[in-house]
Amino acid sequence: MANTASAKKRIRQNVKRRTRNQVARTRARTYIKRARVALEQNSAEVANEAVHLAISEIDRAASKGVIHKRNASRRKSRLMQQLHKMQKA
Question: CA distances (Å), 11 to each of 1, 5, 18, 19, in order?
C-alpha cells in the first residue's frame, strides 16, 4: 500500500487512466471485430463501411495514446488489405 501522498495520488490517477484507456481499447476492438465479420460475409458495401468505421476508431485510440501509432497503422493496413482482397475476388 502507498505511504506517501504523492503515491496515493498516483494510484488514483492510474485508476482513472486505466478505465479511460479500457473504454477506447474495447471500442476499437469491437469495431475491428465487426469489420472482420463483414469481410467474411463478402458483402462489399457493408464491409467497406465497417472497415472505415474501424479505421476511425483505431485512429481515435491512437490519438489518445491508448495504442501506439505504429500499432494502429499496422491494424489499419491489415484491414485494408483484407478489404481489397475481398473486392478483387
Answer: 10, 10, 10, 13
C-alpha cell, 84: 481489397
- Amino acid in position 28: A
Find the domain containing 84 and state its range. Answer: 5-88
The pLDDT tens digits for 40-84 are: 998 899 999 999 999 999 999 999 999 999 999 999 999 999 999
How many domains are there within the chain? 1
Environment class of 25 (CB within 10 Å of its CB; exposed 0-12, middle 13-18, buried 19+): middle
Total-model pTM = 0.87
The CATH number given to whatever domain includes residue 74 is 1.20.58.110
